[in-house]
Amino acid sequence: MGSYCSSQVKFGKSKIVDVSSLEAMADRLRIHSIRATNAAGSGHPTSCSSIAEIMSVLFFHVMRYKVLNPKDPASDRFILSKGHAAPILYAAWAETGLFSVDDLLNLRKIDSDLEGHPTPRLSFVDIATGSLGQGLSCAAGMAYVGKYIDKASYRVYCIIGDGESAEGSIWEALAFISHYKLDNLVAIFDVNRLGQSEPTTLQHDVDTYKARLEAFGFNTYVVDGHNVSELCKRFEEAKYVKDYPTAIIAKTLKGKKFSGIENQENWHGKPLGEKGAEIIKLLQDELMKKGTENKSEIVAPEEQIPMVNYPEIKFKEEPNYVYSEKFILKLNNSKRYISKLLYTSMGRSGVLKVLTDKFVKFL
């Protein structure tokens, strides 16, 4: 199950790192993710487990934010682009004290705001990330505003799944981030090897990930994504890199610490069921053995940034749209054409026989 390091270390100018506390927090986040998805009867506990140490380090050591006001303009931003790992995001915020850990058992209930994927109806979520490949673009926009408009010190952290990293939108965002030298952004790639139905294209070929990201102009680190000390060190170093954005390629295991499930296929998007109780007991026994109940202190941002007063934003001149008669005629003709096309198509025998063993015939 791995071992805890009881020592405390310090990297650069950062605060002391309580390694054992952060490792223990990662396992508590795993336990919450198992319980929540088991209660819901659905969800992605194995996808949560691969980022447990990353979430622990970010939320309880690296990021600066206000627990009771998560969207304070001076707070660091966090985007979970692999939104299906929402249970561990909710678990992290519950551990901060924003809401009760008991609420995690309401995951995916019809009357619960803790949906299967994060949505902005929650006070700690800036964007919805149900659609994979979108999170990094939004993070890029936040970092651009932070550096060039707000001119503020807050940083932006985005976790990207290795499966979604195959999407073109991720690489468009990387190009934008590099071009504008967004050194206030850290893109974290969770390289856990396994996609939804099969291994990802590159699996654990972290050298190829590194070469590609460096080619895009990123300051790039390859780390053991389950090594708390290594993660703390690289996040700290990234703070002092200027004019280059940082990418952290975290080599992880899907279902880390889930005995019999870790790094195995066919466990994507499935609660652990009866296996969950056994795995929770193993994790709890380890926590008891190490005797670690401490939580690292969450540090609020020192900087103050005024909230934008949206009602004061006005057009210099109200738009005055005038539809020409020619436009209206074309619009009406288009409506008539579409209606005729649909009516004619529905009347053709082949359209309503799609599920036959022959090709669809329209005439």
Automatic annotation (TrEMBL):
InterPro entries xref list: THDP-binding, Transketolase-like, Transketolase_N
A Pfam family it matches: Transketolase_N
Leader peptide range in chain numbering: none
Ranges where the Transketolase N-terminal domain occurs: 24-281
SUPFAM superfamilies in the cross-refs: Thiamin diphosphate-binding fold (THDP-binding)
Domain of life: Eukaryota
Keywords, alphabetical: Thiamine pyrophosphate, Transferase
Gene Ontology MF: a single term: transketolase activity
UniProt name for this protein: Transketolase
Source organism of this protein record: Nephila pilipes (Giant wood spider)
Gene: TKT
